[in-house]
UniProtKB/TrEMBL annotation, chains A, B, C:
<comment type="function">
    <text>Catalyzes the N-acylation of UDP-3-O-acylglucosamine using 3-hydroxyacyl-ACP as the acyl donor. Is involved in the biosynthesis of lipid A, a phosphorylated glycolipid that anchors the lipopolysaccharide to the outer membrane of the cell.</text>
</comment>
<keyword id="KW-0012">Acyltransferase</keyword>
<dbReference type="InterPro" id="IPR020573">
    <property type="entry name" value="UDP_GlcNAc_AcTrfase_non-rep"/>
</dbReference>
<dbReference type="InterPro" id="IPR007691">
    <property type="entry name" value="LpxD"/>
</dbReference>
<keyword id="KW-0808">Transferase</keyword>
<dbReference type="InterPro" id="IPR001451">
    <property type="entry name" value="Hexapep"/>
</dbReference>
<dbReference type="InterPro" id="IPR011004">
    <property type="entry name" value="Trimer_LpxA-like_sf"/>
</dbReference>
<keyword id="KW-0677">Repeat</keyword>
<dbReference type="Pfam" id="PF04613">
    <property type="entry name" value="LpxD"/>
</dbReference>
<dbReference type="GO" id="GO:0103118">
    <property type="term" value="F:UDP-3-O-[(3R)-3-hydroxyacyl]-glucosamine N-acyltransferase activity"/>
</dbReference>
<feature type="active site" description="Proton acceptor">
    <location>
        <position position="240"/>
    </location>
</feature>
<keyword id="KW-0441">Lipid A biosynthesis</keyword>
<comment type="pathway">
    <text>Bacterial outer membrane biogenesis; LPS lipid A biosynthesis.</text>
</comment>
<dbReference type="Pfam" id="PF00132">
    <property type="entry name" value="Hexapep"/>
</dbReference>
<protein>
    <recommendedName>
        <fullName>UDP-3-O-acylglucosamine N-acyltransferase</fullName>
        <ecNumber>2.3.1.191</ecNumber>
    </recommendedName>
</protein>
<feature type="domain" description="UDP-3-O-[3-hydroxymyristoyl] glucosamine N-acyltransferase non-repeat region">
    <location>
        <begin position="22"/>
        <end position="89"/>
    </location>
</feature>
<comment type="similarity">
    <text>Belongs to the transferase hexapeptide repeat family. LpxD subfamily.</text>
</comment>
Length: 343, 343, 343
């Protein structure tokens, strides 16, 4: 796909400042810009790249005033950031999308498939599964018995959904996601453990995106529940009976232990751990690698393991780095006090 | 499946207190109880839910004395907790189990398959593999050449077992588990690394459960060894030549580096890390997110990174939170001592 | 495969000290040696095992002088460590390698496959994919549209490579690896998040090994880039637009957030976390479980979360363990100073 600068400007309601006929066929980052690509400048910190970039076209805010000479063609728009997001979405929308049913694939007779499906080769759809309209099921995906998948959801290659789980509309499940494996429940019995059967399921509401190789366990009873709009990154662990509130965002490799309830609009960094049976208030933000071991009120901002108030943690950690110095000071004082006492 | 309260009571040797004819068709948690479901009250902390739950039937200990009015039918049993575990197991046992060989699947001519197998579509069983009786191999599973799987083991969808590995009887491997990938062994050679071939295998003994997307690497030589009754949660990493002792339980996202030997009956929290070449005594308990960098005697209870004695860690961490205050105190004392000296 | 001690000695340019006709058919670790196996002694720390091992043959340095009696046959070589590495490689090279195209597999008409391929059953190769010579693609692997794979690369079972990604020559991708899932990019829009399309790809250069279930996300624009010779362990997370420099080694469960650039020849322990948009200098070493939150100069050696100079961290942590004692000392001093002042 090739575009002239003037066509892109027209598309975005922008103005060309340079050669309107120059052609681009891809986008690039301004610091890595190559001829034939379009880059953008949204953050003033990157302005110096405008004067050296090899990109043929650069989107800039209409207020941009160059301080030096530059070689590229500019397109001036209201907001360069919004414009590039629009272009990315257009580019994405124009990419060919798979459709149809590839063979061999395995669809149980009692499964129901909506309109305009894509079912990739070696996909498996179990008994009584209900697949909505316009769902894309990539190759080697496993949809267990009785699973429901809502309209417009994309399930990438190799996702495994155990029986009885429910996935909403317009969700994206990335490769290797596992929904509905047994919760980690064992009762001690003498010197060994006896498995507690896990007969619940996982319910994922609409507009949820789940990253590659993330695992969400089924509930012991009832449902492990991921509310609408939640975004989970790769390699996240969600244990049985956890509830994640709407529009909460959780970065990679974070783990949430059983039955913990996370409120809406929380943001967790990577590699965070939460123990089980907690309640985390809405709007809580947790720094990467923190550990949460108690209930948390709304809108908390936390760091540490165990985590506490973020700015306080920062102060404590500054002091942690001074500990050898503090210890020396303490020993000195001890001597001086002994001296004073002896006088 | 529907049951009357009186039938459940008969099954459990309990007594109905309320309507013996009320019908339930599922179980629920007492705090989320819905009409037509059975809940249970084992922990006195949840007693107040009895008076408000929508569940039709609640299992209680026979000694339970209600303090308020309630709407549900009670079934009084010796132990509500044991009774619900019994019911869950019965429910689990009654769920239909897959059986037979679905097509297309790939079974090498030289593989041997025991009685009553389930082999899901798109499963692959390599040359010389030996599969015991009553084994369930879900779709898209890869069983490499020469792998042995014991009787009654369940291998969920998409598990990958490299050649030569051994899995015992009555094991459960959840979706996405990888057994027998190469250990992470490289020898420096000039400015780059040369791979050290990994020619050992993984041996998993009987009654082991392995969580979704957990990885256990093959040994460089010999075997990476998971003893009987071990329970591994999701996304755990077990490196080459590690030994995990019998009935040890390891929570999600924990990692154990090469050649470390973990004793029996240990319990590790989530996101714990152990460096290589250590010996961890039997019965050791390690708190979540801890890091282990030295050999550990039996029955230790540890926290921190590096970890040390749990109660001592708790005290140190309390002090860590007081560090800014301590620093202020120290500075004040310094001034006062300087004052005293100048007098 | 069976070998006589004299044949192995000839192969390695070594000298037999004992029975030249003794036969071995496998290798073992000296501490676990069994009759019929060959073990080695490279580290003097393990010397005592020579006198008790059941291994039939032990490779030793030619300078080895036994202090006690021993039962095994010795083969004396220049370097026992190099010799065992040579033997492991020979053993590995002699193992039968899969080849040919198993059915059913799915190869798009527009894909091109090089010479001597192995394509396992249920593998999927998308439109326009280009597979080099002597590539091994194990069962249930997904190679998306337009993916390029270089000569001599091994892709184990169940790897998923999204469209447009590039894998170099002589790479090894272990089971469950996901390359090219969408970067974790969302723009807030009112009370929820809007997905930022991720139109870049992943480029993996030559001689890279990637561990089981590791995830490398595609770039928002441009490429997430893994340079030649990089070794990634299992369950590692590499976010969008990250660059990992040549011959860098990263242990299991480490995560690198978006756009961070890691230099050449770095070594990261397990469970390390790096926040986004950082630059990590070449030759940096980071201890396990550390957290990196700022740019790092070349050849740094770091520990902690946030991490700082390793030896300094060690000192601070020693003091952390003394905090309750320090606090007591401080309180005592405070009293004594108050006493002194009152006099």
């Amino acid at each position: 796909m090739e575009f002239k600068a003037k066509d892109i400007a027209a598309l975005l309601g922008g103005v060309v400042d340079g050669d309107p006929e120059v052609i681009v066929n891809n986008v690039s980052k301004i610091e890595e810009g190559k001829p034939g690509t379009l880059a953008f400048l949204a953050n003033p910190k990157y302005e110096h790249y405008v004067y050296t970039t090899q990109a043929s076209v650069v989107l800039v805010n209409k207020t941009f005033e160059p301080a030096h000479e530059y070689a590229c063609t500019l397109i001036r728009v209201e907001s360069a950031y919004d414009a590039i997001a629009t272009l990315l979405q257009m580019y994405e929308d124009m990419r060919p999308k798979p459709q149809g049913i590839e063979q061999p694939s395995y669809v149980s007779e009692s499964a129901t498939i909506g309109e305009k499906p894509y079912i990739g080769a070696f996909a498996y759809i179990g008994k009584g599964a209900k697949i909505g309209n316009n769902v894309k099921i990539y190759p080697q995906t496993y949809i267990g018995d009785g699973v429901t998948v809502g309209d417009d959801t994309i399930i990438y290659a190799g996702v495994k959904i155990y029986s009885g789980c429910v996935v909403g509309k317009s969700c994206i499940l990335h490769a290797g996601v596992v929904l509905g494996a047994d919760g980690f429940g064992f009762a001690p019995e003498g010197d060994h453990y006896k498995k507690v059967p896990q007969i619940g399921n996982v319910v994922v509401e609409d507009n949820v995106e789940i990253g590659a190789n993330t695992c969400i366990d089924r509930a012991t009873m009832g449902s492990t529940l991921i509310h609408k709009g939640v975004k989970l990154d790769n390699l996240v662990q969600i244990a049985h009976n956890v509830v994640v509130g709407g529009n909460t965002v959780i970065a990679a490799q974070t783990g949430i232990a059983g039955t913990t309830k996370v409120g809406e609009n929380c943001v967790f960094g990577g590699q965070v751990g939460l123990v089980g049976h907690l309640t985390i208030g809405a709007g809580t933000q947790i720094a990467a690698q923190s550990g949460i071991t108690s209930n948390i009120p709304e809108k908390s901002v936390l760091r540490g393991s165990p985590a506490f108030d973020y700015p306080k943690y920062q102060k404590c950690y500054v002091m942690f780095r001074k500990l050898p110095e503090m210890y020396g000071l303490l020993r000195d004082l001890e001597k001086e006090v002994a001296n004073l006492k002896s006088k």
